[in-house]
Amino acid sequence: MLLTASPTLPTSSMSLPESAVERYRREGWVKVDRPIFAPEKFRRLKEHFEAKLAALPPGERPEGMDVPHFTDLALFEWLLAPELLDLVEPLIGPDIALFSSHFICKPRGNGKRVPWHEDSAYWRGMIYPAEVVTVWLAIDPSNLENGCMQVIPGTHRNGYSDYDPVDPAKNVFATEVRAAQMDASKRVPVELEANQASLHDGRIIHGSDANTSDKRRCGYTMRFMPARLELSQAAYAYHQIFLARGEGHGVNRYGDPARARPDLVAARTRGNKNGH
Asked: Which domains does the chain possess?
């Protein structure tokens, strides 16, 4: 059984009303059913992404364009935009840090499946609790046909799951939540038009099917955490967060959006840190 009811944000709102905040806390996600950026600003983001995609080395998959802002400083125009921070603030408060970002692009015909997972499982040892809000911005229309994200509402309250291996040739990740610890029949598709977005809790179980359609599916995930949370000292060897809004609380070393960090990208590659 595939559930189709989706919590949506009223189109007239530029922030999250209390009803949407309550639903996010209850279900672990909410859909923003309106354009996020003005048409010109979104057009520039999409063109910027298309240039990055065209520049990928031969043979490199487009699903794994992780932490591009570490070296592509132009992305901070969108990552630190008030259009995003106004959505996130009702969920985690006025002091906000940019935790991570990731382009995940499924090419038409052979876009890999994203196995069921909790983002927080990949952040063990980095932050606790994993109180991270992901803004999933649709670069392309995202629907069941081309492998949109699907969530299992309420699972953000379950804690960490156990994982079993899956075939990395067919999946973006090499592990998946153990089938006995989730009920996939309760999944809800998050279908979005280009320039729409959803927000989900970093602890919710979610995934997506392979894209076997003739339409590409790309999203830009932008992740934010409360600035009061402390990034572990060990994480600075391969990761960096940035103060996006408000006060820093003196617990973290924030990066400079004007300074590229290719050294961190190299460290992540050596340590196989995907940041997801």
From this structure: 8-271 (2.60.120.620)
| One-character DSSP codes across 12-66 | T-SS--HHHHHHHHHHSEEEE-S-SS-HHHHHHHHHHHHHHHHTSPTT--GGGEE
- The rounded distance, in Å, linking the Cα atoms of 37 and 14 is 11
Cβ atoms of 90 and 21 closer than 8 Å: yes
Query: What is the tens place of the pLDDT at every residue in 112-138?
Result: 999 999 999 999 999 999 999 999 999
* Maximum C-alpha span of the chain: 49
Over residues 25-81, the pLDDT tens digits come to 999 999 999 999 999 999 999 999 999 999 999 989 999 899 999 999 999 999 999
Amino acid, single-letter form, for residue 182? M
Q: Quote the pTM value.
A: 0.92
